[in-house]
Amino acid sequence: SVRLLGGISINNTADAVSATYGGTITTAGGMGIRKKLLVGDNIGVGVNGFVPQEAVHIRKTNATSRYEHDTNSYSYIDFVENGTTNRFGILVDSSKDQMCLTNTNSSQTPQNANKALTVSNNSYIGINTTTNINSPLTLNTNNFISTNATNGYLGLVGGSTNINGNTIGSRIILYANEQATSDSQGCLNLYA
After folding, report:
1. Per-residue pLDDT tens for 13-31?
2. CA dist., res. 103 & res. 79, Å (int)
């Protein structure tokens, strides 16, 4: 073994070819790093047969990542553009048994972020709410589900389709203003 009280500086700039060849240091064993690790280029996880194309590139039969937190705490993945305070994230909060898609700014903790979409521990979905998610889809009160235009329709169908037709089952269709009668208030069609 070699033990140093100081640091090591190596001027070799050769890139790694694989996990077993090339670069400045190649080892057949593991490596432990007690302090911060700063990497100036991409990180590749996998034995060989690929060149890391992204900041973190995993190529394995099961390409998985795990973020594990302590009991009653949370794991958080943060997406932010440099120089801005808006950030988007994925929050897993074990104290509430929920996973959320979030929006917040840099001065807020992830737990205090706005939760746009919440998945509960029974696989129900909450939109803009984290409480009383007691059905497969729960919406925050006093809100609309809307389309992205003033024409077309919004519908519910009792069948496995995305087609508005006479042979697909019962339907509720809310038409927008441009499909409406002369008073421009839209139409409601019910089919059974």
Report:
1. 998 888 888 889 988 899 9
2. 10
